[in-house]
Amino acid sequence: QLTRRRFGGDREVALAAIFIEWHRPSYDSGPMPSELAHHWTLDPSVTFLNHGSYGATPRVVLDAQSAWRARMEREPVEFFTDDLEPALDEARAALAAFVGADPDGLAFVTNATTGINTVARSLQLERGDEIVVTDHTYNAARNALEAVAMSAGARLVTATIRFPDVDDPLEAILRAITSRTRLLLLDHVTSPTALVMPVADIVAALAERGIDTLVDGAHAPGMLPLDLGAIGAAYYTANCHKWLCAPKGSGFLHVRRDRRNQVRPLVISHGANSSRTDRDRFRLEHDWTGTFDPSAWLAVPAAIAFGAALLPGGWPALMGRGHALALYGRDRLCAVLGTLPPVPDDLLGSMAAVPLPELSTDPPDPASDALSRAFGEARIQVVVTSWPQRPAAGEPWRRVIRLSATPYTDEGDLDRLATVLAAHTGAR
After folding, report:
1. pLDDT digits 0-9 by tens, 286-335
2. Nearest-CA neighbor of 62 among 252, 221, 298?
3. Counting runs of H as helices and runs of E as strands, what totals does the chain give?
4. Contact, 231 vs 200, CB < 8 A?
């Protein structure tokens, strides 16, 4: 009862809070970077600042996934025939409430790349049509849309958004659209540069021009407060395994009501000719595409409850903590490099990307990057990549360090990162 008063009336939140408090001693594996780190199974000898790539799932959520898997294997026929559909409905309702979405338009997928491919394969493009992406677009997402465009005789158009010293993303996108633009693919949080895009403004501006937007929200759930209904995008897809800390293999695709009849799953199965009338076609097709392990999806409510119970302020407190740490880490690296912050504070969430000042015209070669080796030798897991993502021949590019700030991160981790960078660059 005390826990429920502290964390609210939600049953799963209260249970997660009890689990966190009672199991703290048994999960303590020695000195860790943050007072919250014992909830994860991460190697304590590694300073892990690369949550943005694949995420990391806490123990209580892994336990929830294991419980679902055990239930499935105890009686598989009963599970898939009788238990799965209501369990998916419950998990979907919890996720929809968390991201401000219509549960009827939300389908679980394995990851955001699958969601993007699902929408791409459902587009009805004609020769000469255009799809706009930005030069910050995730490579896999760009590839998916490029393949569909090529097969239809359409083409991809790239809007250039300057980094560092970011210009107005909306203006850059509007410069790229034409009368033949049919879709914009927009990252909510850009992967290479960690920019938080003003998605609601961009979606609204393109809707006024009759253009749909597919938002790649791979990093958004758990990093940013979401209200998909207010954003209003025709399509929004995201990962749950990153900042929401759900198991890997959990993501979602949300399709606005007026576009649902057009979007079919990548795998067509029994739902395509089902005679059921109690559920619509979108639900029947997307919820069942064949035998699979749904435990990652069914554990999503446990991940939501875990985050809500981890700090007294719940998810807003976690998001605020991550943002503050990302700014701290960015400022520490900028101080070492003697550079100004590359973007305003309000364009960042819980990640930050800091470009190194040196420019190069040689082809980027990650295998020979001495800075990456220095971080590896120091047991620091962090992203070092090149920008632009696809430099043209002779075009100058620079290396970028992208750090992630999570509940298991603290300022000491970011200080270690800055210390290694200072030693590598010779800064004092």
Report:
1. 999 999 999 999 999 999 999 999 999 999 999 999 999 999 999 999 99
2. 298
3. 17, 12
4. yes
DSSP string computed for 75-90: SHHHIIIIIHHHHHHH
Burial of 5 (0-12, 13-18, 19+ CB in 10 A): exposed
Longest alpha-carbon distance in the chain: 71
At residue 235, the 3 state secondary structure works out as: strand
**Is residue 326 a contact partner of residue 405, using CB atoms and an 8 Å limit?**
yes
Contact 134, 167 (CB under 8 A): no
Judge contact between 299 and 63, C-beta under 8 A: no
Q: How many CB atoms lie within 10 A of CB 172?
A: 16
The whole-model pTM stands at 0.91
Residues 251, 108 contacting (CB under 8 angstroms): yes
Location of structure tokens 């749950």: 240
Q: Which has the closest alpha carbon to 161: 129, 193, 131?
A: 193
Structure tokens at 249: 């293999």
Highest mean pLDDT among 60-74, 353-367, 388-402: 60-74
Cβ(427)–Cβ(338) below 8 Å: yes
Q: Reduced to 3 states, what is the DSSP secondary structure of residue 219? A: coil
Q: Which residue has the tokens 């999806």?
A: 297
Other C-beta atoms within 10 Å of 375: how many? 23
Residue 95: what residue type? L
Nearest to 332 by CA among 398, 411, 242, 407: 411
Distance CA 327, CA 208 (A): 35
Which residue from 65, 57, 95, 91 is spatially nearest to 236, judged by alpha carbons? 95
